[in-house]
Amino acid sequence: MADHTAASMRTVRFHEYGEPAAVLRLETAPIPEPGPGRIRIAVHACGLAPADWALCRGLFPGRLPRGIGCDVSGTVEAVGEGVTDVAVGDPVFGTADYAGRPSAGAADRAVMDHWFAVPDGLELTAAAALPMALSTAYWHLSRLGLSEGRRILINGAGTTIGYAAVQIALTRGMRVIATAGETFAERLRNLGAAVTAYGDGLAERVKTIADGPVDVVFDTAPPSGALPDLVKLAGGDPQRVLTCSDPAAAPQLGVRDSFHEDPAAFTPEQRFGAFAEFAQLAAEGRFSVPVSGTFPLDQWRAALDISLTGRARGKLLLLPAAEALV
Predict the structure, then answer these.
(1) Strand 39-48 relative to strand 71-79, pairing
(2) Does the pLDDT value for residue 152 go beyond 50?
(3) Is 168 exposed, middle or buried (CB count within 10 Å of its CB: 0-12, 13-18, 19+)?
(4) Residues in a beta bridge with 13
């Protein structure tokens, strides 16, 4: 059985900025108090993402040490002042409050800043895969316009964000063209998207499928030099293309990117407003974010190594709670 004291917990965190494999370590830290407007959970599952490695390298710098792991699910253990919508013992999922805290979701306990009830039928492990992919996809699609009947190209539909975006767009009645590799191509077709491969000839293949320009383009694929083709597919209008993955190349082409969208639009409602809806769809088997692997907390380096290859092919999850049962 895992050895945890009442006053301490395990957490993966860093004390200086640098390459994640060099600066991250698993160590013991005090169990955090939730504070006003926050809750603390016993973590069942925590999702890892490239954003965690960017934090290690200095993105959004803040007070150190800091933890990793934004996406979490678990059972409410303590409720802060002013919180009235959950009680101790409730299963929840959402985002860990990592800003200004010495630990985050990759730990035995986590403080949450946004949380939602886990509906009946949705397993806690599957719930932990949802938050970042769902919030990122929904926010970007909202910026492009989630309008029924519009034709959207989602470049990189095999990423967790892209896969979520395809399902959201289809749910809203959009006509979806997706680029993806063989891993997810058939699954995306079964969802209702028209699918083509990445790489040379992309523009010609999409034009054949679309029978004309697409209305909007959401780019989630790793940078590959595809943005000029995506602009052409949007009728030559770079403002109809929005990327969350290639902010370096976007300004040169006039393409919209996450970092230069109106910050006033980055509201909790825009990010989290659809969580209850899509969690219920997930419970009904009508929405999902693929999970490619689960790991005990003390095997976090194995998850890191897979993530850094860029070929995770789904969400990587740490399962701290699983070790408590050993």
Answers:
(1) antiparallel
(2) yes
(3) buried
(4) 25, 67
Which residues are bridge partners to 242 per DSSP? Answer: 218, 256
The whole-number pLDDT of residue 2 equals 41
> Which pair of structure tokens corresponds to residue 84?
């009235």
Round the CA-based radius of gyration of the chain to a whole number and report it: 20
8 Å CB contact between 261 and 143: yes
Query: What is the Cα–Cα distance from 244 to 145, expressed in whole angstroms?
Result: 16
Cα 188 from Cα 191, distance rounded (Å): 5
Q: Counting beta carbons within 10 angstroms of the beta carbon of residue 123, is it exposed (0 to 12), middle (13 to 18) or buried (19 or more)?
A: middle
Q: What is the pTM of this model?
A: 0.94
145 close to 175: Cβ distance less than 8 angstroms: no
What is the number of other CB atoms lying within 10 angstroms of the CB of residue 301?
A: 15
CA distance 283 to 84: 24
Instruction: Give the C-alpha separation, 58 to 200, whole Å.
Output: 34
- For 223, the token pair is 């940078």
Asked if the model's pLDDT at residue 4 lies above 80, the reply is: no
Going by the DSSP 8-state scheme, the letter that residue 222 receives in this structure is: P
Q: Whole-angstrom Cα distance, residue 128 to residue 44?
A: 8
Question: Strands, E, within the chain: which ranges?
Answer: 8-14, 24-30, 39-48, 66-67, 71-79, 91-96, 109-117, 151-155, 175-179, 194-196, 216-219, 241-243, 256-257, 291-295, 315-318
